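To: structure desk
From: M.T.
Subject: fold request, one chain
Message: Could you run this one when you get a chance? Sequence is below, nothing fancy, just the single chain.
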Amino acid sequence: MSNTYRILGIDPGSRLTGYGVIEVEANKYRYVDSGKINLSGELHDRLREIFFHVEKLIELNQPDAMGIEKVFVDKNVDSAMKLGQARSAAICASFKFNLPIYEYSPREIKKGVAGHGNADKQQIQRMVSIILSTTKKMNSDESDALAIAICHANHSGNIMHLR
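Reply: Done. Structure tokens follow.
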């Protein structure tokens, strides 16, 4: 049994999907990888790209769990529907690995990283860099995905009990 717990965070989007991988050991967080999946073309092509890219990320990083942002409706229902489809493509990519999936609302993620649910993008980026002790320059999609992974680690309490 390993003492490390690896989490893949996914910030889904139909044009840009962010991902981040962290490791947790003895309640210490370590940055592993992050990036974004740039998507173009018809929606079905973008969903296919999300599916295959997330599947490859899981194969490469061998996470113990995946955290993903819940769908929220702001003003545009069509955007929420596309977000839901992007989430579904990422979630389906985990099925062959039997990877546990954990969902968090934007407010839960912000609270889990910055201590309050009204944090802005810059606050999230700063807190992610501090928590993970990284100086890597990252865009908001990457930092949001890492924030989702951190949120899952924080919500899990004793990480090792999940095994």
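Reply (cont.): Residues 38 and 113 are 25 Å apart (CA to CA). Let me know if you need anything else for the meeting.
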